[in-house]
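ok trying this again, last paste got cut off
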Amino acid sequence: MQPAPDGSRLGDVLVYTRTTAYRHDSIPAGVAAMRELGEEHGFTIEPSEDPSVFTPASLNGRSAVVFLSTSGEVLTDAGRNALRHWVDAGGGFMGVHSAACTEYGWPYYGELIGARFAGHPPVQTGVVVVEDAAHPSTAHLGSRWAWQDEWYDFRSNPRPGVRVLASADENSYTGGAMGPDHPLAWCRDQERGRVFYTALGHCASSYSDAAFRTHLLGGLSWVSTDGIRTE
């Protein structure tokens, strides 16, 4: 088994895919990609759509929690409390694509994820601009990455409160609404925990793309509680 991009080992990862609003057809491909990455890099995943999995006992000892294209209200009040306490105590959280369309009524989640979804133009090819090539989610990419996706706009710019890793060049596609400063992927600390979010991942075909898989793996390795928090 190969190590993650930063040399760390990952352990048990909860991949949560519950939706109560729009459901992406790419979710099965995303789960399959996460499982294959785990097999290759030495971690296990537990896919779930059951909100009862969010308890202190269930979260204890996990390397990370991934919200993979979740949408709407997907947690119970007890689950929200469990997730908040787990992250703040040092847990790792990763959000993919419509994780930004999730838990609109929970203020803590808005802070956790960094920004909330506002809208998007039709799926099309555009350019991702890498702003931080030192992060394991972007270190393998060139300075500009041509990519097809559903280019999310956000209700507010997360930049003041996050480390922006990549942004969208709105001149490279039609219908962007955020202007010249349009973050797409970022990371941040949340108390003792870590958070990574990428707006990419709408298309099922994305999850078979080697560069995108490395993007996901790099984000996961950065938030993981196993071995990388000593940097």
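PB: full thing came through this time. Confidence is low (pLDDT under 50) at residues 227-231.
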